[in-house]
Request: fold
Amino acid sequence: MATRAREIAPEVRELSNYVGGRFEATGSLFDDIMPVNGAPVARVHEADEALVDAAVEAARGAFEGAWRPLPVAERCALLHRVADGIEARFDEFLAAEVADTGKPAQVARQIDIPRGAANFRLFADLFKTAGTDCFEMDTPDGRGALNYSVREPHGVVGVIAPWNLPLLLLTWKVAPALASGNTVIAKPSEETPATATLLAEVMDAAGVPPGVFNLVHGFGPDSAGEWLSRHPGIDALTFTGESRTGAAIMRAAADTVKPLSFELGGKNAAVIFADADFEAAIEGTTRSVFANCGQVCLCSERVYVERPIFERFVEALKAQAEALVPADPWDEACTLGPLISAEHRAKVLGYYDLARDEGAEVVTGGGVRRFGDARDSGSYVEPTIWTGLDDSARAAREEIFGPVCHIAPFDAEDEAVARANDSDYGLATAVWTRDLSRAHRVARRIQAGICWVNCWFLRDLRTPFGGVKLSGIGREGGLHSLNFYAEQKNICVKL
Ligand code: NAD
Reply:
């Protein structure tokens, strides 16, 4: 295992910032660790505050001087070249993502890297074809007036991204921001800086003008994340990450009153009715609990199952959890990676202990499996299922972000809806039933930004994506992204 991981990253590289079209190998260095075995995969130059200021200045200059004046067709053609560049270096992106996250290579090959490229194509094409409002109105003199709106980019957009789907989530924001005519300063997570650095190389090679895309590495508080959030030269800020980080960013950004888009945490409920296609519900719930080792904001950590099938469901999900394979991420059989870091593992294991203290029955897992090889220095935990917790237990209410769920029985539709809604979060839900009317009814009643019926994580990139309550502010995806990354200005012309 360790040998294989070292083959992925044979030498420890240095990752630079990218500001004004130059790779800046300055600043103190921090380690980028492989969660598969705890070994360093890269050393990263942390941007200091002066470099963040320089990035803002470069982005401002490029906005006025290069990007905004560029004809839309040329801007969008450049973004297609960025997508081409990601695809041309697919294997490098794949290796970097797998080394940084430890996720199964087959997952990154099918989802993370292709979506990184697809985001540029989608938003480039969408911006070229998206219409805006136009209204004719009457006036007292009978001549009338014509209203039409145009999309105006904000200027310099800050993008702060998490580590769980590093390239996918970073480009989900960078692509529409650039397509809309903004320039960008991106800050990837300190845990996963590698694919963002490759993206800077691709931007450079594609001929994206200097300063249009800038990359600063670093942390949150007292580092690049905080400096971007409160910077008066950042005109809009888009963030994906934990809800309490979103609150800190909101406070930091308050004085400069900038538009914010927040995609935050979740404690998502899955609701399985007794009439559901049992096998499909088990397959879907297995993915919705354990995909990416439970480190997807959309994962289900609360599973409510109608009582007649409760015990059968618990047994079947237990079998699925125990069949997950924590092999070498490059092994096609691998279905379970490690958590992102030793620090995150300590947090997840803390919840494993807490749930026991709160009275959970541990159906499976609950600890750390020993492998007898280098994975023991990695960040693996056992996939875990609990029953028996009260809905008020912290383990049943707080986001854990690991391969774990609590399964509880319910007796009636109203009860299931009420318990699903008894949460500070409201990101996503999955409802499993063959009753079409009930599916629509429950989907409408559950407080969440996204509701899947008889499926999970089916994503059409044109659809609105985001959460309610602590799970976020605003919607991104398709036109919703364009509406965030540009201001719509109304122009009223008297005829
Ligand atoms: P995090 O909030 O710890 O970090 C996210 C990013 O914010 C990182 O780049 C980090 O350096 C930066 N950051 C941290 N503190 C900051 C501060 N005070 N000011 C500015 N920047 C700061 O989140 P994470 O641990 O990287 O990601 C996991 C979280 O992200 C989970 O809560 C998950 O649910 C959420 N998430 C949400 C979505 C969504 O679409 N809603 C998608 C993926 C992940």
